[in-house]
Design a protein that fits this description.
The complex is a heterodimer.
Chain A (H helix, E strand, L loop, with lengths): L1 E5 L3 H13 L3 E5 L2 H10 L4 E5 L1 E2 L2 E2 H10 L5 E6 L4 H9 L4 E4 L4 H16 L6 E3 L2 E4 L4 E4 L2 E3 L3 H12 L4 E3 H9 L9 H17 L5 E5 L3 E5 L3
Parallel strand pairs in A: 1-2, 1-3, 3-6, 6-7
Antiparallel strand pairs in A: 4-5, 8-9, 9-10, 10-11, 12-14, 13-14
Helix pairs in contact in A: 2-3, 6-8
Chain B lengths: L2 H53 L7 E2 L3 E8 L9 E10 L4 E13 L5 E9 L1 H36 L1 H11 L16 H50 L6 H31 L7 E4 H15 L6 E6 L4 E4 L1 H17 L6 E6 L3 E6 L8 H4 L16 H11 L2 E7 L3 E7 L2
Helix pairs in contact in B: 1-2, 3-4, 4-5, 5-9, 6-7, 7-9
Classes of the chains: A alpha/beta, B alpha+beta.
Chain lengths: 226, 422
């Protein structure tokens, strides 16, 4: 899996690359329009993470260039501008997703995974971790082939854990994945706590091998020991 | 009180006094002149009579006419006082008219050619004087009223015309908003108003400039903050995944993470405020408020499940807002969130949906809030660490955009009212 990160802010690019490398992607990067253009021209990527505000040009015109090259690279736009216009234009130009800064690394991960999965599998998409299989489109979960019934919020949480296995997920990130960001995260911490507790219980009784661990005040982590 | 009323009132008082004094003065002066004239006539008459009597003693007798008469009576020498002319007003009974008519009388003494002293009393009818007096009084009253009325009327129009530019400036100021300054159309030849025009236009321009700069500053600052915030949060997330982190370190990181999330939230709210003010939410639709509220209440109830808050939704009508959907969600969710967050365990929330208004009230421990500061940015009156102090400012800003009136009342419960202005 090859990913191109186009971001002019060194520090943010560095942290994104490090996070993506943890997921065992091959990560390349470009810090400006010119560099990005020739990398896009010369190579193919499974996913391009594109900042639309570059010092020497707009990420949106990079997107247009990409379409002109008739390349099929998936693109996630990352922008500091939470503007509906930009979002609509970006998606119209063929971007697959739009993420507003600041975002959680886990969220970026989840989005990239979802895009790559959509691209790879022509049939029904599924996602698996150990003996858990998730069918996101029909909100179904199977453990060792047995269907596990979860409510909507529990499903969202499990989906987030499975897209980010072995990674520490903050309560904020989890709350956002369930509620979007219109509800204050802090208010929902108790709720996250009880939902995770329920989910953990359900996974255990249905014989799922991965386990959700609480990590002190920070959040939770899904781990699986062979 | 209006400036024109004030000026006219101030003008009226001295005018009334001056004109009254003038009217009385005029009246007495004229009357004095008339008496003088009559006295002169009587004296002339006296000269003529005495001259005739001295020449012809047979004329030493009374003469009674219609307009004037005289009486001659002999008096003892010791009573005679030749130097005295006594004038006085009197009345006389006229038999033909059967009434008393006013007369003016001159009584004087003289020494006739025969060496005897006589008293001469001359009487002139002053009927004309009475007529004159009446005419003068009526004229003065009429003049008084007409003059006063005319002065006030003229003043009123002159005032209106002179101060038209002032009222134009006032009207313009009333409609002034730094976000959208209108040009001041107030052509005038008067120097003072020209200066005033220039001063106000300049001040308004400065106001708009400052407003725009501030707006832009907030916008740019929050934009610029996005990336460093993203970097900090993401680095912290990466760091937290380091297996060498101790429990204490993780707790510390969680606390920093939460603080950073608070800044992110505040920053997002500031950006949203800027975007609302810049009119960046052009798409509008009919929003069925009941549906939005019910969905949100379900979500919030789930989140605040452990506090067992009872929500009563009273649907008397199905109000709709014509507005942007995202903004409607933000506005309503902020109000409902507050009703939950500032509630007490086992508390209550009442949501009343009426045709033109929505009332959200909740029980709470906190006393009545300060209405003045409530809807201001960072005007928060609680010290909850997770409160951005921007929630109600956002509500107000969105409500203003769509001409919805939002107000706060306290009747033991905290009550927020959204009213559609028709």
């Amino acid at each position: 899996m090859k990913i191109l990160v186009i971001e002019d802010e060194d520090s943010l690019r560095d942290v994104m690359i490090r996070s993506l490398e943890k997921e065992r992607y091959v990560v390349e990067w470009a810090a400006n329009y010119r560099e990005a253009l020739w990398k896009m021209n010369d190579y193919s990527y499974d996913c391009i993470v594109l900042d639309i505000m570059l010092p020497d040009g707009s990420g949106l015109s990079l997107l247009e260039e990409l379409k002109k090259m008739k390349k099929k690279d998936s693109v996630i736009i990352v922008s500091a501008k939470d503007s509906i216009d930009d979002k609509v234009r970006g998606l119209d130009l063929g971007a697959d997703d739009y993420l507003t800064k600041p975002f959680h690394l886990a969220e970026l991960n989840a989005r990239i995974k979802s895009i790559i999965r959509r691209k790879q599998q022509d049939g029904e998409m599924n996602l698996s971790y150990a003996n858990i299989i998730i069918y996101p489109d029909r909100h179904a979960v199977f453990i060792d082939g047995e269907e596990l019934l979860l409510n909507r919020k529990e499903f969202d949480l499990l989906y987030y854990f499975v897209t980010n296995p072995e990674r520490l997920l903050s309560k904020d990130a989890l709350a956002e994945s369930v509620w979007g960001d219109y509800i204050d995260q802090v208010d929902s911490f108790d709720f996250i706590y009880s939902q995770v507790k329920n989910l953990r219980k359900k996974l255990k009784t249905s014989g799922a091998k991965p386990e959700i661990k609480a990590v002190y005040g920070f959040g939770y982590k899904m781990t699986y020991e062979e | 009180m209006k400036l024109s009323q004030y000026t006219l009132r101030n003008l009226l008082v001295p005018l009334l006094i001056i004109m009254t004094v003038w009217a009385f003065g005029f009246y007495f002066f004229i009357m004095h002149e008339v008496n003088d004239e009559t006295n002169d006539t009587l004296l002339n008459y006296k000269e003529i009579i005495i001259k005739h009597v001295l020449e012809d003693e047979s004329l030493l007798r009374d003469n009674i006419g219609i307009m004037n008469s005289y009486y001659i009576r002999e008096i003892p020498a010791e009573q005679a006082d030749l130097s005295r002319d006594l004038f006085f007003d009197s009345t006389k009974y006229i038999e033909v008219e059967r009434e008393h008519e006013p007369i003016r009388v001159l009584r004087t003494h003289f020494l006739a050619a025969n060496g005897k002293f006589y008293e001469l009393q001359i009487e002139i009818s002053t009927l004309e004087k009475e007529d004159l007096k009446e005419a003068i009084v009526w004229s003065i009253i009429a003049l008084y009223i007409i003059l006063l009325g005319a002065i006030l009327l003229v003043m009123h129009f002159v005032f209106k015309k002179s101060f038209r530019p002032l009222y134009a400036i006032l009207g313009w100021l009333r409609g002034y908003h730094p976000a959208k300054p209108q040009p001041l159309a107030n052509a005038t030849d008067i120097d003072e108003f020209k200066t005033l025009n220039e001063a106000f236009v300049k001040a308004a321009q400065r106001g708009s400039d400052i407003y725009n700069q501030q707006k832009q500053f907030v916008e740019l600052a929050s934009h610029e903050l996005q990336t460093p915030l993203a970097v900090s949060i993401n680095r912290l997330e990466l760091l937290s995944e380091d297996p060498h982190c101790t429990e204490e370190q993780l707790m510390e990181m969680a606390s920093i993470h939460r603080t950073l999330q608070g800044i992110v939230k505040m920053n997002k709210a500031l950006l949203l405020l800027s975007r609302i003010e810049n009119g960046q939410f052009p798409e509008t639709e009919e929003i069925a408020v009941a549906e939005v509220i019910e969905n949100m209440v379900a979500d919030f109830k789930e989140i605040h499940e452990e506090r067992r808050i009872n929500v009563f939704i009273l649907k008397e009508a199905a109000p709709t807002f014509h507005m942007n959907r995202d903004l409607a969600n933000t506005m309503i969710s902020n109000l409902i969130k507050n009703a939950f967050v500032h509630n007490i365990p086992d508390g209550e929330i009442y949501i009343e949906l009426l045709a033109d208004r929505i009332i959200i009230s909740n029980t709470s421990e906190s006393p009545e809030l300060n209405k003045e500061r409530l809807f201001q940015r960072f005007g928060k009156q609680t010290n909850r660490p997770d409160s951005t102090g921007l929630g109600l400012a956002l509500v107000k800003s969105i409500a203003d955009l769509y001409h919805i009136n939002v107000s706060y009342h306290y009747n033991g419960k905290h009550q927020f009212l959204l009213e559609m202005k028709k």
